[in-house]
Design goal:
- By secondary structure, this protein is α/β, with parallel strands linked by helices.
- It is 29% helix and 24% strand.
- It folds into two domains: 127 residues, Fe-S cluster assembly (FSCA) (GMP Synthetase, Chain A, domain 3, 2-Layer Sandwich); 247 residues, 3-Layer(aba) Sandwich (Rossmann fold), CATH 3.40.50.
- The strands form three sheets. Strands 8, 9, 10, 11, 12, 13, 14, 15 and 16 form a nine-stranded mixed beta sheet that branches. A five-stranded mixed beta sheet has the order 1-2-7-6-5, with helices on one face. Strands 3-4 form a two-stranded antiparallel sheet.
- The N terminus is likely disordered.
- Bound molecules: adenosine-5'-triphosphate (ATP) and magnesium ion.
- The site of magnesium ion has 5 residues, from α3.
- Magnesium ion binds next to α3.
Length: 398
């Protein structure tokens, strides 16, 4: 199929644009392809030619699983963006709906869909229609879905797992609260919630008269976590659409009340929960947690790029596990030295703080008493978190 240019056709509906592919109107010429066992089209690989019979919509849907949402690891099918597929002899129409304020996103999806569909045998003329709806969450976008009463929504993210996002999010929340701010912490990690453990409470939340969940309060911070809704060791078994619904509910159906900061503790990666969050509420900024090690920095860059794609500014970096200090006062840079500072300079964002590896910090997390509950004088890591909270406050102006 010839690669036609794509056009943008404005529909009657306000803030809704449909992309079409006028250059392919004549059907074009197909490349010979075959289908492998795992249903991935391979160029020149087999006997399947054009029979004139229509494609099977399920087959087209499977093929579209190769198309990822730009900047994210999740594909457009599992994220529920593919709304309809119709196949007639000589014509396959794929209808996609995407919420974004960034025109590059539908363009990329459009091109990637054609790259997958056009070589398929029996596809006929592939028409990819993308309906673009304004993104409620894109900071800087036209429509911003704020949470009433909440002044700043800050995502704590990392890309890489296990670098200390939850530890940082919990301690940052506590340190912000200690500085006089009204703070909420939403644990967006449905599959590995940490907040209940880190705040030492398994209280069940109640609903108010408006059917909103009343957050649990501990150490002066309002909390919501999947951990409050589960029995002890039950694993969370929620599929994609349900995970989306829970995440939206945690953000929009919790009676957060008046808050200066709502901190979001994100799961690792750049997947559908991250995308759901930025499409549900206007995130004011992201704080990226990394260790000084290159493998963590690589994933941190992916997270930075993901937030860039959805117009969420990076407020700054926090380097965790920066060093271990022995009793004699000597520092051991177990994960390398200076990675966070170098990365912050490259990105042109502040390095909010360096948090050393510290036994009381780990113990405090396990015991439900974040180390930042201690004063700066009593513990060096608590001091680092209090300085970090002050830096976040001065950057965000609340
Ligand atoms: N500065 C630190 N000093 C000592 N232990 C730490 C420190 N930061 C984190 N930890 C410990 O490292 C482990 C991982 O931390 P944490 O759960 O905060 O990471 P995470 O990035 O949220 O992980 P996940 O990606 O699974 O959500 C925990 O056991 C935590 O107590
Ligand atoms: Mg975590």
């Amino acid at each position: 199929m010839g690669q036609g240019f794509y056009g943008i056709r404005a529909e009657a509906v306000a803030s809704c644009v449909v992309l079409s592919h006028p250059g392919c109107a004549d059907g074009g010429v197909h490349k010979p392809v075959g289908i492998t066992g795992d249903h991935k089209p391979v160029a020149n690989g087999g006997d399947l030619g054009e029979s004139g019979a229509p494609m099977n919509p399920d087959f087209v849907r499977e093929a579209l699983r190769q198309v990822r949402y730009p900047g994210f690891s999740r594909d457009i099918v599992s994220f529920g963006l593919v709304k309809n597929i119709t196949c007639e002899p000589g014509l396959t129409v794929v209808q996609i709906e995407v919420q974004t304020a960034d025109p590059a996103v539908p363009e990329r999806i459009f091109q990637d869909c054609h790259a997958v569909l056009d070589p398929l045998p029996d596809i006929g003329h592939a028409r990819v229609e993308i309906e673009v709806k304004g993104a409620p969450a894109a900071a800087g976008g036209q429509v911003r879905a704020t949470i009433p009463g909440v002044k700043r929504i800050i995502a704590v993210a990392s890309g890489k797992g296990g670098v200390g996002k939850s530890t940082v999010a919990a301690n940052l929340a506590v340190a912000l609260a200690a500085s006089g701010a009204k703070v909420g912490l939403c644990d967006c990690d449905l599959y590995g919630p940490s907040v209940a453990q880190m705040f030492g409470t398994v209280e069940r939340p109640l609903a108010n008269e408006q059917d909103e969940i009343i957050p649990i309060e501990a150490h002066g911070v309002k909390l919501m976590s999947m951990g409050f809704l589960l029995d002890g060791s039950s694993p969370v078994i929620v599929r994609g659409p349900m995970a989306t619904r829970y995440t939206q509910q945690f953000l929009r159906q919790v009676a957060w009340g008046e808050l200066d900061y709502l901190i979001l503790d994100l799961p690792p990666g750049t997947g559908d929960i991250q995308l759901t969050i930025v499409q549900t509420v206007a995130v004011d900024g992201a704080v990226i947690v990394t260790t000084p090690q290159e493998v963590a920095l690589i994933d941190a860059r992916k997270a930075v790029s993901m937030f860039g794609k959805v117009n969420v500014p990076i407020l700054g970096l926090i380097e965790n596990m920066s060093w271990f200090e022995c009793d004699a006062g000597k520092r051991y840079h177990l994960f390398g030295n200076g990675g966070g500072a170098r990365e912050a300079e490259l990105l042109g964002v502040p390095l909010f703080g360096q948090i050393p590896i510290d036994v009381p910090t780990r113990e405090g997390g396990d015991a439900g008493k974040p180390v930042a509950l201690l004063s700066a004088e009593a513990n060096k890591v608590a001091a680092a978190f209090h300085r970090t909270a002050a830096a976040v406050r001065s950057k965000t102006g609340v």
